[in-house]
Amino acid sequence: MKPNKKKYRLLVLSDLYKSSSMMLKSAVGLAKMINAELEVFHVTKPSDIVASENQLSAMRTINSKHKTIDKKIQNLITPIEKDFGINIPYSFAFGNVKNELGAYIKKRRPDIIVLGKRKSKPFNLIGDNITEFVLNAHDGVVLITTDNDVLLPNEEISLGLLNNSKPFLNFAFAEDLMKHIQKPMKSFKIIKNSTAVKEVSKAIDDETIEYVFEQNDGTIKNLSNYLSINNISLLSIDRGQKDPDNAKELIMLDINSIIGKLNTPLLISGK
Q: Could you say which architecture CATH assigns to the domain 8-146?
């Protein structure tokens, strides 16, 4: 008998901003593609809701805020549950944002964490850079969504590969996701100074076209333009950033900088 296929765990970290619906739809889309279960988690700082020094008043405020947040999350997930036919469990906590997130990630051990990005800025919750924190705290895959692009389970993904011509080397769910990828895929590489850099090279194989950029001050902007021209709906980044065919030529990328400068959904591999 064939062993049961692993059910991946996907955790959505939401700040309940108005763009959270777009982020959650992308999370649901990915979950359906790779046969994953998902949940939503939110954290609020007590200092942002309790201004009174009176204990009884503070408790009343927390209880009221508890109901408000619970209702807000329900309003977020209920329409999506109906549209996609999926159950989305959720929870939330009051406390230090990074401490609560770190403890929850350790407890739940998700395979994939989903963060949102709005107005070309990394996901920030109560002023903290949660994106960088999650990348350090979570050894698994991170999906960073944008306001404008949604991953839908019934639509093919136009995939871009950054500094790696071998798609999904470090993604356990690669086989499932590849069923939803348009062909040809686009490979984007940023290399060291060269006298013979071509913006577009010949196809690597029957399924991949490669674009090569020389490292300079305008490289990321140029890359962003090419992602837009090619309608890339998801850019895959390997945290190891090692292409076995071109390891010596490739520039080691600052992933935090890439996240901040590109407005394309990013799928970042585990460590």
A: 3-Layer(aba) Sandwich (3.40)
Q: What angle do helix axes 130-137 and 97-108 make, rounded to 10 degrees?
A: 30
Does 190 have pLDDT greater than 60? yes
What percent of the chain is predicted at pLDDT more than 70?
76
CA dihedral 153, 102, 18, 144 (to 10 degrees): -40
d(CA 116, CA 21): 10
What is the per-residue pLDDT for 258?
Answer: 85
* Cα–Cα distance measured from residue 137 to residue 146, given in angstroms and rounded to the nearest whole number: 22
Nearest to 33 by CA among 151, 125, 142, 127: 151
Domain ranges of the chain: 8-146, 159-262
CA distance 198 to 99: 47
Please give the model's pTM, rounded to 2 decimal places.
Answer: 0.86
- CA separation for the pair 6, 174 (Å, rounded): 13
Report the candidate in 202, 196, 181 with the shortest Cα–Cα distance to residue 267.
Answer: 181
State the pLDDT at residue 2: 43
